[in-house]
Amino acid sequence: MDLKRMRYFCTIAEQGSISKAAKVLNIAQPPLGKRLHELEEEIGSPLFIRTTKQMVLTEAGRFLYRKSSEILSQVNSVTRQAVDIASQKKRTVRIGVSYLYLRYFNTVFLELYRKNPDWDPNLLVSESTHLEELVMNKALDMAMIQTPGDIRSFYVREFEPIKLVAVVSTELAENLPDRTLTFADLSGFPLVMLHRMGGEGTYEVLLNRLYEEVKDVNVIMKVSEPRLVIEMFRDGLAGAALMPESEVGESKHFRAFKIEQKEKLFRPAIITLQSEKDSFLPGE
């Protein structure tokens, strides 16, 4: 088994289909399918279960993907190090950062940057769903996002969950008790909800909890970016927002109340493809 076929196999596993993998690898589908067939003949076992929607790894396929990812990650790391030593140039590292955790990941990024003086970082700020897709398509090397629902294709470095807080404009905060709040305490309050543009996330979980526990749910707007919500409060918006504590800070224009919660909703993580892990997060 050569490295090229190993890389082809891993890309098919990560993309879930030969057509998507062919686009990422920039090759035609027939030769890619032929390489996979040759690999399955060499192994002596099917590596995928073919369904109408996607290709799912068999037990042998999962084992081969895990081991191949480790080998490719080490090869990529060695290659990059050799190139860096030969050229003595910084290497471009493409990093995505989620709107949801800009303040939180600022510290995390700076720590990584200090540990990797050879990096020439290129940062993109967007939504977690979009950044996942860019990592999958190898348009980003890593992403700092909400932990994905499906982590099969990624190496995931998870961080401690971030507490949920209710950010309430100062004039409305006077009507609340000085204690940890329940969702019921926010009944009738004009609510600003964080909401990603694509896919489901914390918005749906929080909304379900609100309808379970709150008599009068009054959502006045949905916003994708926490810092925009904070700016609205500073500019005089009267309302409340449910947000990760890390993104709030202090202001005379609002108060942040802790909220009783069952689920750990805000779960930041760094993701890379399994095959790239040793290139960007060695020693994890």
TrEMBL record:
Keyword Transcription: yes
PROSITE patterns (alphabetical): HTH_LYSR
Organism the protein comes from: Rahnella sikkimica
Record GO terms (molecular function): DNA binding; DNA-binding transcription factor activity
InterPro entries tied to this protein: HTH-type_LysR_regulators (IPR050950), LysR_HTH_N (IPR000847), LysR_subst-bd (IPR005119), WH-like_DNA-bd_sf (IPR036388), WH_DNA-bd_sf (IPR036390)
Keyword Transcription regulation: yes
Name of the protein in its database record: LysR family transcriptional regulator
The HTH lysR-type domain, residue ranges: 1-58
Keyword entries, A-Z: DNA-binding, Plasmid, Repressor, Transcription, Transcription regulation
GO CC, one annotated term: cytosol
Entry's family note: Belongs to the LysR transcriptional regulatory family.
Cited Gene3D superfamilies: 3.40.190.290, Winged helix-like DNA-binding domain superfamily/Winged helix DNA-binding domain
